[in-house]
């Protein structure tokens, strides 16, 4: 078997006449933490749903653990865990029962399920709330429980659709640390997120999709270097002199009206030149980020 | 995942088990309703109508009103229990709690989830009927051994009315829309299926309509099992009707739910 846990080939997803995923191809390697980024409605959830056989493909082919998902979905699902974008915890049950009863769907014996539930409750810091009903949990606890539940079958592949949306920074950082530990244990992880900082920190590799198509694929740092450079000059407000200077020098830039981004690649002298001559106070030199890449590639208009 | 043939296996029992474990937590409510309902009916209708309807003619037998009506309490409860479970409750699990979505990340097919849910609805009907039959037995209103036939009847009726509930779950956009089938289908059946008066009292055309409805057959069998007057003809016709309708509507419910859920 190849080293790829997921192989996506020319996959399409249509809802009626609307094409949500438009022929995308990518691989996720064993042990990798792979990111799926894109604006709202880009087709991330649609893609993820096809990966675990929730949603049938409209075209192309998709293999997970070497199985064709269309025919081998049962074997595939036995070895993966999913944390949905929308909460799908069982509100009628306690925290512990959510884990133990879910284990039943995988046919895990009860004693084993109890054992694993103990470990997962501890791993996610929920052991004191095990008897609480899901309704009593905070958003962060619910999300932790949802991820814990996705791990009850000790999956080789963990699929997380926006696992950190709506969480406070503390919980988010704690989750990153848990994900890093899972990755160290050899779990392959694919995740979607709207937090670019998160993607930059966590992902070994990522793709940015828009309108159902892949725009770029690569390592976060490489993408930053390739598309925006290590450093960016940001000026706000923008004076006319600066506008002229940038055009004359033919610098790659983005003029947002009240704000201007100048991609100076690795040329630090430009910054000194600008601050000496033009707006001293309104100009900063900062690191290029994945967010810059994202906005540059997907544009700044609102979606949906 | 496939759109055509149902994908069923014993895994559907895992869904059944989930429902059982969740329901077990509130067992007292589940236990009290079928315990008290027959007592309420018997005291209210039984004593209330005792003077108005001293006795009633049913298929050549002369019965007191309580003896006539008691089996219908079980039959209508079988209908309501499974229908409610696979309409309102299943809809809540599907739509609000996303329970089905969660289970669809495990090695279970949509067919198994829905079949497990219908099986659970039937199990609830069976449990309620068992409790009700026990209570009615204490009042001497169930004859044995034929009364034991109520148990398989409850399960079969539960499958059928659960499937009917699930058919509507496959269509409704919001939970309020279940009031429509209740008003147009369930309540008329409750009133006109030989439940509270013998069908012979109805004009011929209305009798024919009544015999087309599943509850009429469920009531007829339940009554004859309780009275000890059940005939093979009865079992063949009404049992055959219920079985055929179940074998038709359960696969139809699976198919329509697949269409709703698999997108
Ligand atoms: N079941 C469906 N029926 C019809 N259209 C759908 C369905 N599911 C998704 N879509 C549409 O497909 C497109 C992609 O949706 P998808 O949920 O995959 O986006 P996403 O990238 O996950 O977005 P978000 O970041 O908002 O979660 C959207 O335009 C959405 O409206
Ligand atoms: Mg999404």
Characteristics of this structure?
heterodimer; A: 304 residues; alpha/beta; Rossmann fold; six-stranded mixed β-sheet; elongated; B: mainly alpha; two-stranded antiparallel sheet; 10 helices; globular; binds adenosine-5'-triphosphate; binds magnesium ion
Please provide a written account of the structure.
Chain A is an alpha/beta fold. Chain A has two domains: 4-217, P-loop containing nucleotide triphosphate hydrolases (Rossmann fold, 3-Layer(aba) Sandwich), CATH 3.40.50; 229-288, Alpha-Beta Plaits (2-Layer Sandwich), CATH 3.30.70. In chain A, 38% of the residues lie in helices and 26% in strands. In chain A, the strands form three sheets. Chain A has a six-stranded mixed beta sheet, sandwiched between helices. Chain A has a four-stranded antiparallel beta sheet with strand order 2-1-4-5. In chain A, a hairpin with a 2-residue loop joins β1 (4-15) and β2. In chain A, α3 (95-105) crosses α4 (110-123) and α8 crosses α11. Chain A is elongated and about 75 Å long. The mean pLDDT of chain A is 92. The radius of gyration of chain B is 19 Å and the shape is globular. Chain B is built from ten helices and two strands; from the N terminus they run ααββαααααααα. In chain B, strands 1-2 form a two-stranded antiparallel ribbon. The N and C termini of chain B lie close together (10 Å). The mean pLDDT of chain B is 93. Chain B is mainly α and 263 residues long. Helices cover 71% and strands 2% of the residues of chain B. At the A-B interface, α2, β6 and α3 of A face α1 and α4 of B. Bound molecules: adenosine-5'-triphosphate and magnesium ion. The site of magnesium ion (MG) has 4 residues of chain A, from α1.
